[in-house]
Design a protein that fits this description.
single chain; alpha/beta; D-Maltodextrin-Binding Protein, domain 2; six-stranded mixed β-sheet; five-stranded mixed β-sheet; globular; BUG; Bug_dom1; Tripartite tricarboxylate transporter substrate binding protein
């Protein structure tokens, strides 16, 4: 465009004539169309906002070769753990909206952090374009199989009877959850900070803590009868534990159900988003990814960008209700 402007100025066109000619010129439109048609012309960076070796990292590693086949360009994985995905989201917000920097995100990063810890979250859910949904996980509250309660309500009654309970917390959500339950039910569950799901399950099985959160990665222990699920943290019941109600179903405004999806900076061109969605959907529906999914506690969760926005908005509303109850 600068070259075009200099070229026109060299012909000594009057400012008014120059402005008219530039207004009529199809060049900007053609350049934009050419960029969209040629995307991608270089490698795409896919940020992961969680620890290496975790479920999201592993999911990305299976997806990436399939996305590369569809895009015809390398996809470079960039690990950016921190803040339950907040570090990656913050970096993504500042990236150029050209489709070359995207992230594998989780619902809670965009629905929980901005609502519950806004002072530590330099973004809102409106700062991004949501491309396509991929995978859902099985969040639940778990306890050891021989715990003296089999349901969530029995656990609450046990705590109300004066019994001490401890909870291995892994995320900011865990601390807020325990604060909410203690205040609402008049109990005193002690929150103990824990480094990840592997430490949490060791604490549960070893009898060091009574309760914890699982994102579905402890399904094997559940199937072996080593732990039990007390409540689903998704708005619906879990696929693998259909007899266990959700906290939403039990009347609590609590929803930590995650869907993994591809997210891009706000303002990414529609044609570029469409190409990304097509490539990622092909990867999600590939035989290789289907084989991987058959060995995990996750489930395929296809969703459009608008459906992801709606799911985030619903979870934000429940989080606001929970925080309102805490402030009263």
């Amino acid at each position: 465009m600068k070259l075009l402007l200099k070229s026109l100025q060299s012909y000594c066109l009057a400012p008014a004539a120059l402005a008219t000619l530039l207004t009529l010129s199809p060049v900007p439109v053609l350049v934009g169309e050419a960029m969209a048609e040629s995307f991608p012309e270089k490698p795409v960076t896919l940020m992961i906002g969680f620890r290496a070796g975790g479920g999201m990292d592993t999911t990305a590693s299976i997806l990436i070769p399939e996305i590369e086949k569809a895009l015809g360009q390398p996809v470079v994985k960039s690990m950016q753990p921190g803040g339950g995905g907040a570090k990656a989201a913050s970096l993504l917000k500042e990236a150029d909206p050209d489709g070359y920097t995207i992230a594998l995100g989780a619902t809670s990063t965009f629905a929980f952090n901005p609502v519950v810890i806004p002072d530590k979250t330099p973004y809102t859910s409106a700062d991004f374009d949501y491309i396509v949904g991929l995978v859902g996980s099985g969040e639940a509250i778990m306890a050891r199989a021989d715990a003296p309660y089999d349901t969530f309500q029995e656990m609450i009654d046990y705590a109300k009877a004066g019994n001490d309970l401890t909870y291995s917390g892994q995320t900011p959500f865990d601390r807020i959850l325990i604060q909410y339950l203690n205040r609402k039910e008049g109990i005193n569950i002690k929150h103990i900070s824990t480094k990840g799901g592997s430490e949490a399950i060791k604490n549960i099985l070893g009898g060091h803590t009574d309760l914890s959160f699982t994102g579905g990665n402890h399904l094997k222990q559940y199937q072996r009868g080593e732990i039990k699920f007390l409540a689903s943290l998704r708005p619906e019941r879990l696929r693998d534990a259909p007899d266990v109600p959700s906290l939403t179903e039990l009347g609590y405004p609590i929803d930590f159900g995650n869907v993994f999806f591809i997210v891009a900076p706000k303002g990414t061109p529609d044609d570029v988003k469409a190409k990304l969605a097509e490539a990622v959907s092909a990867a999600r529906d590939s035989d290789a990814f289907g084989e991987y999914m058959s060995k995990t506690p996750y489930f395929t969760a296809p969703a459009t960008g608008d459906e992801i926005v709606d799911a985030i908005a619903a979870q934000e509303a429940r989080n606001r209700e929970m925080m309102q109850a805490l402030s009263e």
